[in-house]
């Protein structure tokens, strides 16, 4: 049974994919509670919390979990750490965050009036709304949130990616070309057919050949590079980051305005730069959302600029 390690604050979680994938996560709860900052609720400090907000990355008590549910799933995706089932990637995502990393973002300026476990629910509700909806305790940054997310994906830094989200980045926005210092091309290498050169009698000349390319070059080839966060995470084979981006609404079936193609088709066209396991994971996530599989594509229509 292979173990995977997730680094967090200089320590590592050792988690078995056979134990945690799609099973009630008692082992995960025990592992999370090994660290003092996860033994209390991120919002009211109640002891032994056994709920979480998967996308916000916090461990919370049952009362605060109810308040989180009232915020809506676009703000907080609440799960029970003992009753719900977690995929392996979702498990590693939660372990990459936790209360220390997440509260360093959501409570960068810790308020004096933070509620305690015995505080009235109405007061807790106002505090949680201020923390996650109005973002009153966050530290603002002059850095471009898109650049923060780009750097986070490049380095596999989930907490930094959460910071970009908190600062308002849209995970479906493409990166401008000037941000890409070393862009990864989606255009496959040319596929050549080598034909003999014949004389007037139909006999081939020795050592003479003609190479004919069967590949097409799309219009505006500079845009046929990896320019989207989800695409970059797939290229990096960082499935935990892919899971994180999906938690925040990443959509592979949006239209790329620069090329007129679906992002899914750009991913399929550039399949030679994406590992098969990453493409399989993406198709699994899309199937759970009722979306079609992304196929490997070898050509692009130059007339309509759409994939075929």
Q: What is the fold's blueprint, element by element?
A:
Layout: E1 3-8, E2 11-16, H1 17-20, E3 23-24, H2 26-32, E4 51-53, E5 58-60, H3 62-71, E6 78-80, E7 85-86, H4 88-96, H5 98-106, H6 121-132, H7 145-155, H8 158-166, E8 192-198, E9 204-213, H9 229-235, H10 239-247, E10 255-256, E11 261-262, H11 263-269, H12 276-288
Antiparallel strand pairs: 1-2, 3-7, 4-5, 4-6, 8-9, 10-11
Helix pairs in contact: 3-6, 4-10, 5-8, 7-8, 9-10
Domain Arf-GAP: 26-145
GO molecular function, one term: zinc ion binding
Organism: Rhizopus oryzae
Task: Describe, in plain words, how this protein is organized in 3D.
This is Arf-GAP domain-containing protein. GO terms for molecular function: GTPase activator activity; zinc ion binding. Keywords: GTPase activation, Metal-binding, Zinc, Zinc-finger. With 308 residues, the chain is α+β, with helices and mostly antiparallel strands. It has two domains: 3-132, Arf GTPase activating protein (Annexin V, domain 1, Orthogonal Bundle); 149-180 and 220-288, Ankyrin repeat-containing domain (Serine Threonine Protein Phosphatase 5, Tetratricopeptide repeat), CATH 1.25.40.20. Helices cover 35% and strands 15% of the residues. The protein has twelve helices and eleven strands. The protein has a three-stranded antiparallel sheet. It has a two-stranded antiparallel ribbon with strand order 1-2. Strand 8 (192-198) and strand 9 (204-213) form a beta hairpin. Helix 9 (229-235) packs antiparallel against helix 10 (239-247). It is elongated and about 100 Å long. The two termini are 42 Å apart. The model is unreliable at 1-25 and 302-308 (pLDDT under 50).
């Amino acid at each position: 049974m292979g173990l995977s390690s997730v680094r967090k604050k200089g320590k590592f979680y050792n988690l078995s994919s056979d134990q945690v994938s799609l099973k009630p996560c008692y082992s995960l709860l025990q592992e999370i509670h090994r660290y003092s900052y996860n033994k209390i609720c991120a919002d009211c400090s109640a002891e032994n919390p056994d709920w979480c907000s998967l996308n916000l990355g916090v461990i919370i008590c049952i009362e605060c979990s109810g308040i989180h549910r009232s915020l809506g799933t676009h703000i907080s995706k609440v799960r029970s750490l003992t009753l719900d089932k977690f995929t392996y990637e979702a498990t590693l995502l939660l372990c990459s965050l936790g209360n220390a990393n997440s509260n360093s973002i959501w409570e960068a300026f810790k308020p004096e009036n933070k509620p305690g476990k015995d505080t009235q629910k109405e007061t807790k509700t106002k505090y949680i709304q201020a923390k996650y909806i109005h973002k009153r305790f966050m530290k603002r940054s002059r850095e471009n949130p898109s650049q923060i997310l780009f750097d986070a994906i490049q380095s596999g830094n989930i907490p930094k990616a959460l910071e970009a989200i908190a600062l308002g980045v849209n995970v479906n926005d493409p990166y401008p070309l000037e941000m890409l210092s070393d862009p990864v091309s989606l255009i496959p290498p040319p596929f050549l057919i080598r034909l003999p050169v014949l004389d007037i009698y139909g006999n081939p000349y020795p050592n003479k050949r003609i190479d004919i390319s069967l590949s097409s070059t799309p219009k505006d080839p500079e845009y046929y590079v990896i320019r989207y966060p989800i695409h970059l995470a797939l290229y990096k084979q960082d499935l935990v980051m892919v899971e994180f981006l999906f938690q925040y609404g990443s959509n592979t079936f949006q239209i790329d305005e620069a090329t007129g193609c679906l992002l899914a088709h750009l991913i399929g066209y550039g399949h030679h730069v994406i590992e098969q396991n990453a493409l399989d994971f993406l198709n699994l996530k899309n199937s759970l959302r009722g979306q079609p599989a992304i196929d490997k594509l070898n050509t692009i229509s130059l007339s309509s600029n759409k994939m075929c």
